[in-house]
Structures are given as structure tokens and as C-alpha cells.
């Protein structure tokens, strides 16, 4: 799940509404009889989606478009996995961080039931909850988790991505050594841990597993029949297989089991089901004749709370700004985004994740939004071939340099040691380029960026190369220093021409024809 960079979007499109008023009576399937204007929109969306899927080499995708309390359009594109089954509107995808909106809804349901107080400390509901700073742990309120202002860091949330294989409560109890990055309630900082903790509160207060609560209290009343608490709970083969680019080739990859991080990013749903969810979010918590939250509660979920950047605010599992309410999400091999834009709602699901083209993934939904408002979409940017050609070329150069260094290491070089000045220069070069720089990369990437297990999980191939290259450099540097040290201790060899002047004990002997005294 990513710490998203949402662009400011202008709330324009009111001039196009007149051209789309006939959409209000649309049906979920474009195959049904529709007014000509609707078919034109569907044709444009289809053309745009097909071009985007091909340009970004996506295995599959699904979209849903709603207006008011009706689904206008849902459709799947491409394949759901290696078995090449077509993606349909009912194909389930692992959502990523769009799960946070569902978790926030679960919390708000318990708030309206009088079982949770947003102003209460987390420890009222999770008495065992502790972070490294025990006093600060006592000051974290439920609302701080919802607004991403608890002080927990983005980095700590990333670490949890590779430690979420434990049950939720066990995962949360393992946070005892986790430090806060800022004072409680002082500033926005996106962290998956905030919503994992909220999931723990839902479990404790409801008395049932988080997934079961979501299934019974949200999925069931909203008619989300293709949605599941996790991929493992779905029927075998039903959930779309995620893909990742490995050295530029999209390949299916197996997603790890994430029971401990389900509330922050591993719920499963389909484009059709998420369209139902958007309808409820856009209609005061109501879907058909069922209500999952009051209108006031939904408005509270969408209200700006914590300032992010560029006029954007975090609400409760949603971001607001530019006239829209939205949230996106990504796992190691899936992507999703949903948006509420006035009376329109759009959801996009993709069974792939390419972090080199994530802005292009965002641009797909932006393009659909333009089409809905009768504006021409900006073509999805893609330099897929060029980017991976450059990365692969760099990888080949680094690999070739490593092979050449190993070759030189074992090549017989009688002058390798050289004089004292040359030896010192060689040692300094080896220490700098084979030890200090690789060591700094290994140490600083997990401290300043993301942990190495996350790098390898989200960037297979390149992530592994980035991790192994410094290790190989360290080993090669140590070997080169050992060779230099051995060369420095080796006895100086006497040329054959000089050996004739030495006697058996090492003393001088006379040359043939020399005069004797």
C-alpha cells in the first residue's frame, strides 16, 4: 500500500451534465438497450480502457461508474490470471489501501452504535496496546488513528507489510518497540499501522474477527457478494492473480498471506461491489432500502481533518481536495482507486502493480473522469519499453563490471602490489567504492526509504539486484584487500641473474674468470 500522491483536481464538469442526463436511467451493462448518447460514452470508455491496458501491458482491469444511486457502467478488461479467464465486473481484486475506507466505515458504525468514542484513548478498547513510548501510547485517541495523526510513521507502516503474517491481535501486540515519529496529534503522517489498530478496535468492541464484522455489517447489507475479508476466504481460483514486472516482463506473483494487515490494505472486492459501496457513500449511507451509516456519519467520514499537502486533507479513509473525495491503494501486485466527484463515482481495479508507472495507473481513472464529464481524456503516459530498457542496461553494466572485477582479482599480475604510494591509493579506492558506498546503501535504504524486505517484495528482480549488488561489492572488496595484504607480505623474489652471485649460505661467490687474491 502506498503513501499516495493525489493531485489537486478542479471541480469542473457542470457544463457537461446536460449532455449526460440520460445516463441517470442507465443499466449496469452496456449490452442492454441504451440511448445513443450512452453508447457513445461507453464506446469512448472502452476505447480509452483498451488503449490504456495495452499501453501499460496490464494483464487485466475492471471499472465501475455510478451516478446518484444507480450504476451506469461496469466492465472488465483483459485476463484475471495465468488461466486466462476474462476479467468481469464480478472478478474480485485485492484492494490495497482503499480498504481503509471500509475500515473507517466499520469504526463509524460502532461510533453510531454508542460502542466507540472518537475522543477516547485507544487503550480504553485495547488495554494491552503499547508502543515504545508508554506515555505517548496513552494519549493516542481513536480519531488520531482515523486522521493519520497518531505520530506513527510511514516507515513503521511499511515495515508491517512484511510482518503481517500474524493474526491481527498478535501483530498489534508486536508493536511494543515501535517509536513515534512525531508528537501525538501534531501532524499528518500516513501509516498503515493506524488502520491496523482500528481493525483491532473493531474486533475488541464487536467481539468477532475483523473480517467477519466487515462481511456481516458492510458487505452483506450492500449486496457485495463478490467481496471477502481476505483472498484466502474466497473460493479457489476466484480472486484475480496479481502481476508484477520482473526485468520488464509482467509475470504472475503469489501474494503473501496478510491477516495482520487486512484492515489497512488486504480486503477483497470487485468493480460491481465497489460500485455498490460508492452508491452508499454518495447517498447518505444508503444502498437501495438498506442503511449502513447515517448521512451525518458519512459526511463526517468525508470531512477534511488533517492537512496533507497542496490543499489536500485526510478525512476518514478518504482524502479530500480539488472538489473530489478519493482514495487509492496498492499491494505488491494489485492496484485500485475510487473517487467521488459530485454526483458521479468511479472505481478502477487492476491486477498488477508497477511502481515505475504508478502515475500512469492514476491517470486511467483521471481519463475516465474526463470522459464522464464529456471532456477528451489526456492519453495515459507510458514509456514502458524505454524505462525497462534503461534499467536492464544499467543492470547489465553493473553485472559486467562485477564479472570483470572478479576476473582481475584472479588474474596473475606480478605488479599488482606496486610501490607504497600505489598500494595506498588502491586500498583507499577499494575501501571507498567496495566497502563504504555499498555499506552505506545497505544501511541507509531501510532507514531513509523502505525496509529491504519491502523493496524485494514490491520490486522483484530490480529490488533483489539492488540488495545483492552491495553485498557482492562488499565481498569483492574484502577479497581484493586480502590479495593486497598477501602481496605485501610475500618475500621479494630475487631475479635469476642475481642468484648466481650468491653462495649456498647466501654469501657472494666469485664469477668464472674473476681474479682471486
Automatic annotation (TrEMBL):
<dbReference type="InterPro" id="IPR012338">
    <property type="entry name" value="Beta-lactam/transpept-like"/>
</dbReference>
<keyword id="KW-1133">Transmembrane helix</keyword>
<dbReference type="Pfam" id="PF00144">
    <property type="entry name" value="Beta-lactamase"/>
</dbReference>
<keyword id="KW-0732">Signal</keyword>
<feature type="signal peptide">
    <location>
        <begin position="1"/>
        <end position="33"/>
    </location>
</feature>
<feature type="transmembrane region" description="Helical">
    <location>
        <begin position="427"/>
        <end position="450"/>
    </location>
</feature>
<feature type="transmembrane region" description="Helical">
    <location>
        <begin position="387"/>
        <end position="407"/>
    </location>
</feature>
<keyword id="KW-0812">Transmembrane</keyword>
<feature type="domain" description="Beta-lactamase-related">
    <location>
        <begin position="46"/>
        <end position="354"/>
    </location>
</feature>
<feature type="transmembrane region" description="Helical">
    <location>
        <begin position="462"/>
        <end position="483"/>
    </location>
</feature>
<keyword id="KW-0472">Membrane</keyword>
<protein>
    <submittedName>
        <fullName>Beta-lactamase family protein</fullName>
    </submittedName>
</protein>
<dbReference type="InterPro" id="IPR001466">
    <property type="entry name" value="Beta-lactam-related"/>
</dbReference>
<feature type="region of interest" description="Disordered">
    <location>
        <begin position="497"/>
        <end position="517"/>
    </location>
</feature>
<dbReference type="InterPro" id="IPR050491">
    <property type="entry name" value="AmpC-like"/>
</dbReference>
